[in-house]
Amino acid sequence: MRNLVRFTKRGLLILVVLLSSFLYSGAAEMITDKQNGYKPLAWIELSGLQTGTVIVLDGNGGEYVREAVSGTLKFRVGGFLGTHSIVHLDQAGKLLGTESFRVDARTEIRDENGELGRFVRFNGQVYQYFYGWLQDNVHSMKAFKYFYPEITSYMDFFSSGQREDGMMPDFFHTNLANLKHYTLRYGPEFINAPQDDKSSGFFIKVIVENMSEFHFLEGLYFTWKATGDDRWMEGKLDDAIKIIEYMTSDPYRWSEKFKLTKRAYTIDIWDFLPDDEAERFNNNTTWGHPDQSEYGILYADNIGLAVGCDYVSEMLQYAARAEEAARIKALGEGIRARNDALCWNGDFYTHWVPEDPAYTYDFGETDISEQITLSNAYVLNKGISHENCVRIIRSYQAIREEMPESSPGEWYLCYPPYEKGWHIDKWEYMNGGVSPIVAGELAHGAFEHGFEDYAVDILRRIHQLGKRSGDYLHCVYRGAMPDLPERNFTSIDLKTTANADFSGDGTEQVPGWIGEGKDDISNMPVGKQVFEDIPFEIIDPQANGRRACIGLSGDPGYLFQTSLEVMSKAASVYLLHVMHDPQFTISHTPNPRGKYYAGSLVLHYSDGSSWTNPITNDKTGYFHYPRGRSRYEWPTRNTMPLYKVAWKGENSIINDVGIYVYGFDNPYPDKEIASMELIAANTPVKWMVAGITLSDGPFFFMPSKVSFGAPDAWASAAVAYAMVEGLAGVKDAGAAFNQAVIAPRWLAADVEKASATIKYEASGGYVSYHYRFDPESNELRLDFTGTQEDTEIDLWLPPGKEVREILSDNNPVEHRMRIVENSRYACFNVDGTGVHNVVLKVK
Q1: How far apart are CA 623 and CA 530, in angstroms?
Q2: Are 224 and 760 spatial neighbours (Cβ–Cβ below 8 Å)?
Q3: Is there a contact between 338 and 260 (Cβ–Cβ < 8 Å)?
Q4: How many CB atoms lie within 10 A of CB 487?
Q5: Which stretch of DSSP H or E encloses residue 324?
Q6: Burial of 664 (C-beta count, 10 Å sphere; 0-12/13-18/19+)
Q7: Which residues pair with 578 in a beta bridge?
Q8: What does DSSP assign to residue 198?
Q9: Domains of the chain, with CATH numbers?
Q10: I need a labelling partner for 469 at 20 to 30 A (CA). Which of 269, 406, 645, 841 fits?
Q11: Are the beta carbons of 408 and 467 closer than 8 angstroms?
Q12: What is the rounded CA–CA span in Å between residue 562 and residue 547?
């Protein structure tokens, strides 16, 4: 990691190459069919060579080819990235010529079937980060570090918000206008306000949270690993020690009873209280106080802090601070032991253990002792015992056997969910949502603990889930879908009331769709149509004098008011409708902000009473760029959408137009509805109604299979983590890949040919390999290169196979067997950079 420049034989050879680039600039090229650049392990052929020797140096000046030649030579590219140099010497050692070529790599994993930032300013400094929450950055960095070159800035950014006693902020709020609100909500001691009036925002510590502290320790460690920047890491160690001391002493964080970190009741590491607890604090779901809160022990906080101590201890040891390293290591071991004794229930870690067991919450019939929460998947990869990992993995396999049939997978954030007691519906987000976060961490742990087949199965199912989601992986999916209710429908006949055409042309007596020519909905299907399980009768304009829908507006030619006879009872009402603003203020953007008024629907009952329903843009959408409920919208209580996109199409002006179905419950279902009145907003806004249907059942739309909550990159990064370190089996055993482990598990996926290149963009450290298994000869070949000086090779043996022989660079090597459950690995080490080849022969 510390690059020491020495003028050695290698340095002299580099100097010769540099000088000869001038002396031999006109010499013939040696490389046949030279390319602009090469990837590691690419083949290069040299021709026209006089008898002598060819030496090839990598981008760091390391020699990785030295061959006697005459005529031609073929070699594979390896070693450090950058400019590689070819040196051609005659038999007497005289220089005949040189040539250079560029080598670069990017992170990619390929198998034979192909299956598988923002800028802110704070106190005069400008930083780059990805998300406002610290933990979102840390978890997303599990993948970003392989693709993005600047990864220290976000850590420096959150360091600037650290309190003097070590407390870390949870997130950065980018609106200074809200500073007073958050200061009142949390108290000034939990706000880090800027001294610079040009700052982009301010830092906030969520009182109920503990995870920003241990996430900072994790982020520090893995950022150092990716960059290999020792000086930067060493400059953060005192801040890291402050964090540990704060977490093990502050009355908001430390339980003197259990000698563990404590927090009020939350769902795993998340940041909100149950209803019972929040009501005590004026419904502030993120509040806490040592004299007021009911505290308990969350296993995730303590294992996170324990492994954070391991990370800090390793960094202190590297920085020659051995005494402090030993103290921090012992502290972490004590936390881990006490946490296991208190929270381990024999199958997984109990979610939350109260300091006062007499205090309970009203969660209905939920058996909280049976709940397994997401951090059980995380801790598989945080140094807990192999035996505990096995029990946790089997617990998830058991969930798969009993979970609802409509579930996307056993990767629950909390299972079983709470029946009541939270501001989040059952099966949504943290209360029973399913997340690839859990899937990725579970798959990674399964690869490491002898469940390779199960890990591969998880990755394949996640891949299919992404394909069903439009080749996109969302962070949270709904944990179960409700059954479609039985109900009857009656469609209202609009033929005599309709006044507008679906076509934009219209006629002299019939206005066009929105009065803007070809910008219309002329492709709208007609006749009996079913949208989101609701039937509608859509008028064919050709059969009704071009009158296809009801168009209401304050503009001339459209209706301001109309009435429809009903004479029927209904439990719910559904509209097929849309709104449009000709002033382009609201309807020509995919996610408009604010509330806009289209008109009103009035139910007139036979007893003379009435009820009015104002139609605003939370009950319908816009004609252009139709969208359902934004996945970034944070719902409360009811997550069933009020409206959904019913139909989408295009016209000659806009390639994305559509119409919506909206439903609502009739507040007086036992009363007969005599008529239904539609009233325009008396503005240029158009309210276009193409269908109305009554139902004898309560309003119901099938909720989206996609839930809400954390950023999607967090989930994708967890899956990438399992792919890189689990299936492809590439792990950094040092820093900046100066040491590496290659443990490919492709045969567990029945893949016989694959390749992988894993590169840190920040440092250029990388590992690249080509993998091939020949079932006829029972030989596995692994060709690899990279920046590592020492490589541990762990080769997974298919069931029933035994090692016959292992060759490394054509020489027999001794190996050791590693047994993990029923899995067996043949393990050995290969020294040196450059290109290496390994052949495993099995029988």
Answers
A1: 19
A2: no
A3: yes
A4: 15
A5: helix 322-343
A6: middle
A7: 688
A8: T
A9: 9-104 (2.60.40.1930), 489-695 (no CATH), 732-842 (2.60.420.10)
A10: 269
A11: no
A12: 14
Ramachandran angles phi, psi of 239, nearest 5°? -65, -40
**In 16-152, beta strands by DSSP E:** 43-57, 63-76, 82-90, 95-103, 108-111, 118-122, 125-129
* Mean of per-residue pLDDT scores for the chain: 91
Locate 710 and state its tokens: 């954390």
Are 426 and 417 in contact by the 8 Å Cβ rule? The answer is yes
pLDDT band at 739 (very low <50, low <70, confident <90, very high): very high
d(Cα 514, Cα 623) in Å, to the nearest integer? 9
Residues 6 or more apart whose Cβ sits within 8 Å of residue 129? 117, 118, 120, 137, 153, 154, 157, 172
β-pair partners for 739: 790
Distances in Å between the Cα of 767 and the Cα atoms of 730, 764, 788 are 7, 10, 7
Q: How far apart are alpha carbons 343 and 299 in whole angstroms? A: 6
How far are the Cα atoms of 234, 322, 327, 566 from residue 316, in angstroms, in the given order? Answer: 8, 7, 10, 78
User: Pairing relation of β-strands 610-616 and 803-808?
Assistant: unpaired
pLDDT band for position 641 (cuts 50, 70, 90): confident
Question: pLDDT digit string (tens) for 258-306?
Answer: 999 999 999 999 999 999 999 888 888 998 899 999 999 999 999 999 9
State the residue for tokens 């933990």. Answer: 135
> What is d(CA 224, CA 232) in angstroms, rounded to the nearest whole number?
8
Separation between Cα atoms, residue 373 and residue 300, nearest integer Å: 9
> Are 503 and 516 in contact, with CB atoms under 8 Å apart?
no
Q: For 383, phi and psi rounded to 5 degrees?
A: 85, 15
Task: Tell the residue number behind the tokens 């079913």, with chain if given.
Answer: 530
Supply the DSSP string of 147-185, one letter for each residue: T-S--SHHHHHHHTT--TTSPPPSEEE--GGGHHHHHHH
pLDDT higher for 113 or 269? 269
pLDDT one-digit tens code per residue, 584-640: 544 444 454 556 789 999 999 999 999 999 998 889 988 888 887 544 444 444 467
Q: Is 26 helix (H, G, I), strand (E, B) or coil?
A: coil
Q: Which two tokens stand for residue 232?
A: 């930067």
Could you tell me which of 537, 785, 571 has the C-alpha nearest to residue 667? 571
Over the stretch 654-688, which tens digit does the pLDDT of each residue have? 999 999 999 999 999 999 999 999 999 988 999 99
Distance CA(317)–CA(295), nearest Å, equals 35
Distance CA 119, CA 129 (A): 6
The pTM assigned to this predicted structure is: 0.89
Rounded mean pLDDT, 114-128: 60
739-742/790-796 β-pairing: parallel
Angle in degrees, CA 788, 789, 793, rounded to 5:
70
645 touches 566 (CB < 8 A) = no
Between CA 238 and CA 253 the distance in angstroms is: 20
What single string gives the DSSP state of each residue in 646-706? EEEE--SS-S-EEEEEEEEE-S-TTSPEEEEEEEE-SSS-EEEEEEEEEESS----PPPSB
- Helix or strand holding residue 230 (H, E): helix 230-234
178-202 pLDDT, tens digit per residue, is 999 999 989 999 999 988 878 889 9
Q: Is 63 helix (H, G, I), strand (E, B) or coil?
A: strand
Across 67-71, 119-123, 291-295, 726-730, least confident range: 119-123
Give yes or no for a contact between 277 and 287, defined as CB atoms under 8 angstroms apart. Answer: no
- The answer to whether 97 touches 88, Cβ cutoff 8 Å, is yes
The pLDDT score that the predictor gives to residue 593 is 53
